[in-house]
Design a protein that fits this description.
- The protein is mainly beta.
- 2% of the residues lie in helices and 57% in strands.
- The chain has one helix and 22 strands.
- The chain has a five-stranded antiparallel β-sheet with strand order 1-9-3-7-6, with no helix packed on it. It has a five-stranded antiparallel β-sheet with strand order 10-17-12-15-14, with no helix packed on it.
- Strand 21 and strand 22 form a beta hairpin.
Amino acid sequence: MADPAYANSGQFVWSGIGGLSSAYDVGSGANRILFVYIARHMEGTISGITYGGTALTQVKTLSSSRLGVTSRLDVWVLHGPTTGSNTLAITTADHLSTTRWIAMAEVFTGADQSLANYLKANEEYTADTQTATTTNSWTNAHDTDADSLIITAWCTKGTGGGTHGGLTAGQTERLEGENGYGTILSITDRAGDGTALTVSGSITGSQANSVGNVWSHVLLPPQSITLGLTAVPASAVSSAVIGAIEDANITITPTALFETLTISIGAILVTHPIETEMF
C-alpha cells in the first residue's frame, strides 16, 4: 500500500465579483485527496467550491489583522476527486470588485479518505504580527507516523513585498505565489518518520506590520482495510490481524485452506486459488 505522496498542484489568481472557473487535472493516482487553499487581502467569503460538479468541504478558516493589514486563509478538501481534467469552480461573496484572490490546488495520493482520521492530527498556528520591517517566522510541531506526510499552508500579508523561506530541513515547497497586493501563499510538505517533527519558516523582504496564518496537519495513509474471503470454511482462517496504520502489520495465517482466498487491501486485489490443503 503506497504512503501519502504529493501528486500535482495548480495556482490561480483573479479579482472581481463572482469567483473563479478553471480547468484543473488531478491525475488518476489511488486514494486521491484534493486540497484547495485560498487567500485574499481584504473582506470576502467563499460560499462554495466544486470540482467536476462535486462539492468540497471547508475544514478551516483563519484570519488575523493589524493596523488595517489583514491575512485570511481558507482550506477546503475533496476525497476521491474525479480523475483527469475537470472544472474547479470557486464561488465568492461579500467582497468588493477590487478584492484580489489567490488559490492553490494540491493533490496527494495514498491518503486516508476519512476526514476524521487526518483532522485528528491537525494543528494550526497564527504567526506573530510585526511592528516594523523584520523577519516574521512560524513553527509547528507534530507527532508523525513513519508513513505520514506533513502538509503546511502559509499565508502572509504585509505593507510591502516579500518571500517565504527559512524552511526547516526536509520541507519541499510545491508552490509560492502572490496576489498582486502583498498577500503571499505557499504550500510545503515533509515526510514523517515516526518521531515528533518541527516544521518552520520565515518571511524575508519588506513586510512592515505583517500578519500571517499557518495551517498544517499530518496526512495519514489509508486506515481502513477490507479483508474478503471467498468459498473458505469459517474455520479455515485461524487469525487475521489488521494493523491500525502499517500495512506491514497485517497477518493472515490460513490452515486447511481450500478453494479461493481473496485479499483486498486498499486498491490492491490479490486472489489465490488453492486446491490442496495448506499447513
